[in-house]
Each structure stands twice: as structure tokens, then as C-alpha cells.
Amino acid sequence: MKTAFMNAFKKDDYLNSLGLKTEDEGWLWMVHQYENKFVEMIQSGLNCKIVWPERMVDGDYSQIYETLEWLGLTYNTDSIFNLIDHKLWKSRQKERSK
User: Fold this and answer.
1) Do residues 42 and 57 both lie within one domain?
2) CA separation (Å) from 7 to 34, 48, 62, 78?
3) Are 43 and 76 members of one domain?
4) 37 and 63 share a domain?
5) 20: closest CA among 29, 8, 33?
6) Cβ 59 vs Cβ 92: under 8 Å
7) What are the percentages of helix, strand and coil residues in the chain, rounded to 5?
8) Domain that holds residue 10
9) Do 37 and 54 lie in a common domain?
10) How far apart are CA 65 and CA 80, in angstroms?
11) Please, which residues have CB within 8 angstroms of residue 26's CB and are 6 or more apart in sequence?
12) Which of 45, 50, 53, 68 has the most other CB atoms within 10 Å of its CB?
């Protein structure tokens, strides 16, 4: 959240160059760019897997396990939970306090 690109759509000159007016419009534009790239990858036949990060923030790690298996990698459940759960705990707390 502290990276420079998180402020990209707060800059009027950047919004204007895209024909947009608000920060919300900017982020929606960005989401649509990502969606278009996903569609291109899938339609071109790339061997890819879709992962929804918000599921991990909500505590659902099933896609991590699926991805690791898809890649043919072994995993240690305890080490994954220790790493990920610790990092996402603050995000969950913020969401719950809203």
C-alpha cells in the first residue's frame, strides 16, 4: 500500500492522459486492463492458473495449495500458514473493524 503506484490515480495529469476524471475511474480502468490481459492469456492457450488474492485475505488458502500442486511443488502447511497468516492478519483486523 506504500508503493508509488498506489498514488497514480491521484495525479490529475495522469488521469487526464487516460481521459478519466476521478481516482475511482482510474482504478476501474486499471482493473479492466488486468481483466483484458487475463482474457488474452487464456485465449492464447497459455498454461495459466487464476488466483484470487482476496480469498487469501479472508483466510481461504485453498488456491495456494492448488497452485503449488499444479506447479508440482511440495509444501509444508505449517510454514505456509506461518508466513501468510502473519502478513494478512492486519488486513483482516482492519476489515473486521469497519
Assistant:
1) no
2) 18, 30, 32, 36
3) no
4) no
5) 29
6) yes
7) 70, 0, 30
8) 1-47
9) no
10) 9
11) 8, 9, 14, 15, 18, 20
12) 68
Residue 33 has which C-alpha cell?
A: 486492463
Q: Same domain for 43 and 53?
A: no
Residues 38 and 62 in one domain: no
**What span, in angstroms and rounded, lies between the C-alpha atoms of 47 and 91?**
31
Give CA torsion, residues 90, 92, 97, 98, to 10 deg: 120
Counting DSSP H helices and E strands in the chain, the numbers are 5, 0
pTM for the full model? Answer: 0.57
Identity (one letter) of the amino acid at 78? D
- For 47, phi then psi, to 5°, come to -80, 90
Residue indicated by cell numbers 492478519: 89
